[in-house]
Amino acid sequence: MKKTTKWMLTGAAAYMAAITPRLFNRPERMPKVYYAHRGLHDNDSEAPENTLAAFRLAVEKGYGIELDVQVTRDGRAVVAHDYNLQRICGVDKDIDAVTYEELKKYPILNSQETVPLFADVLELVNGQVPLIVELKCKNRKSLVCEMADSLLKDYKGIYCIESFNPAVLLWYRLNRPEVCRGQLSSNFPKHDGNKTLAHYAMRHLLTNFLTAPDFIAYNCQDKKALSLNLCRAVFGCPAVAWTIRSQDELSSCRDYFDYFIFEGFEPDEKN
Fold first, then answer.
1. Confidence at residue 39, expressed as pLDDT on a 0 to 100 scale
2. 30-262, what's its fold?
3. Strands 64-71 and 77-79, bridge-based pairing
4. What is the mean pLDDT of residues 241-263?
5. Bridge partners of residue 1, in order along the sequence
6. Per-residue model confidence as pLDDT tens digits over 3-35
């Protein structure tokens, strides 16, 4: 065997080993329903994103819910996507720099809604629909995991966790292996301009061997990504599409994904 061929085969084997998801003792898969991105929201209405009103509408329509959890300065788990409040509240402050009491003073997108506690969201949903919980963190990785888990461990409904940060998945692998966990990813250079080594590894799912995800949640615009499709075809790892924004986009992604997170429209069928 030529040396070049040997190196190519070795490299291919190392690559496949790196992207290997969890293969054994996998938790039960999530229900095959459509998942409303940040709730069934309309940011020009009284039910803007990641609010109790948006989650209530999703429950009423029977949609699963995707939501975002992060931690305030005083250690409260709240539901919000952006680290900074400028876009949704018009206040240039980071969520981890304010207390929950202060958060309650800021209405979201001119509605009557404010950033909710994760505990209040869980009480509202009460197991009626499944949840995809994205854990967001800048620095206190273990804190957001611990705070979310403290609320979810006694929750009776179906849920999974996901994160862009592999450290979050690693925490769950070590501390709560029975919980279904997913790696969020995307073609970062194309969408965000991020070209760091860490983003390269996350884009190509090269941390899977450490975190052993149960599913891959990938930007639907990057549906032909090699690592995503290999994980699905070779290892049987479910693929979750984010974020579908039209019926046509949903139709074009059906051959590449198993689950769909949608926003801005309602799918023609419930599953």
1. 98
2. TIM Barrel (3.20.20)
3. antiparallel
4. 98
5. none
6. 788 888 999 999 999 999 999 999 999 999 999
| Per-residue pLDDT, 140 | 66
DSSP string, the chain: --HHHHHHHHHHHHHHHHT----SSPPPPPPS--EEETSS-BTTTTB-TTSHHHHHHHHHHT-EEEEEEEE-TTS-EEE-S-SBSHHHHS---BGGGS-HHHHTTS-STTSS--PPBHHHHHHHHTTSS-EEEEE--SS-HHHHHHHHHHHHTT--S-EEEEES-HHHHHHHHHH-TTS-EEEEE--HHHHT---SHHHHHHHTTTTHHHH--SEEEEEGGGTT-HHHHHHHHHH---EEEEEE-SHHHHHHHTTT-SEEEE-SS--SS--
Angle at which helices 118-125 and 141-152 cross, to 10°: 30
What ranges do the domains of the chain cover? 30-262
Residue 261 has phi, psi (to 5 degrees) of -105, 125
Catalytic residues: 37, 81
